[in-house]
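Lecture notes, unit on binding sites. The following record was shown on slide 14. It pairs a sequence with protoporphyrin IX containing FE.
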Amino acid sequence: MSTTTTDKDSDTTVLPERIRHFPFPFSGDSYRYSANVEPAHKTVQTEAGSWGSFLIDNDEHYLSELQEREEILKKDPSRTQVLPHMRFAVWDAITTMLPVMAEEHPHTMSYQRDGNTCRWGNTLQNLELEFTIGDDDSLPMGPLQFLGSQIQDDLVFLDPREDTLWLDAGLVTFAADWSFGFDVGMKFMEVHTPVPRVQTEPVINRAHQFLLRLQPGEQFRRTNWTMTIGRRLDTSTETYPDWGPDRGTIAQDPDLPNKLHLRVEIQHMLCLPHTGAILFLIRSYLLPLTDIAQVPLWRERLGHVLAELPEDMAEYKGINRYRKAASTWLLAG
Ligand code: HEM
């Protein structure tokens, strides 16, 4: 990630928060897959500001995104599943994540534990709650649904056994063009089968080995990116008819710069302390091209990345039909 400020950069102090804190993922004019893993919590300076000091980031969309999640879960309960042996991993995640959230956001969140009794406060939701660790009935909803009602990230749990990792639980309402319901019960390597180049490049195999060696308490992160038309978080395979057709028309749409968003995921990987399960957190950020263009270096970089991206990667990301139009707009400056 570059930290250089050039003469061409805008005055970043006047940029809105959504731009200053956006995790712009490109450090050069081209992009290839890599394991790109780094320790969590490290602040990254960008040309517009910074991101990454927190594990859990509550932003201006906190209430609206959690409301949207609740509605999606109501319509489609398959977006959350917990295989029976993962029940303890979910409680492990609750007793790991709530204290982190309270520590990182002490003005809005609080957590106290006395034996197995916990008290959770969240002023953003006007919520005060007492529950007993391990007792599902002491929570107002299922334990994973409860955690998913407090945190903007999607949650995926991997169970390490038989020298591999099994995607055996999760709550995913904001998937970028994949289906949690389809992947649940699969192995890590199977989940990545559709990704191009997995047969010839070692990235996914390396990621697998890395995750298998994670030690309890360790926390790492990486970013991934794609593009989304509209400020639409739910681009799961299940709702493809709602958003897929836009991919065929956006290139001709005069409003492309406002509608087309760069979508960046900050993905955290934690080894839970009591069960050894891997918790994979996916937090999605969306920024329209018009906002990207307010930072001259971002405008140029994204323009070049989109133009240069190999066709197989562009096709997999679903951006192949409009990336040229986007790149042309960005590079026209
Ligand atoms: C260091 C760790 C990881 C690396 C390097 C990695 C790498 C990748 C890459 C390169 C892609 C293609 C993305 C694109 O072109 O937009 C991908 C997709 C994906 N990854 Fe990972 N990944 C990692 C961890 C995980 C974990 C822990 C999970 C959770 C099970 C996961 C689930 C997925 C899914 C569901 C997809 C979409 C697959 C589809 O299209 O069906 N990844 N990953």
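Take-home: Residues 277 and 304 are 39 Å apart (CA to CA).
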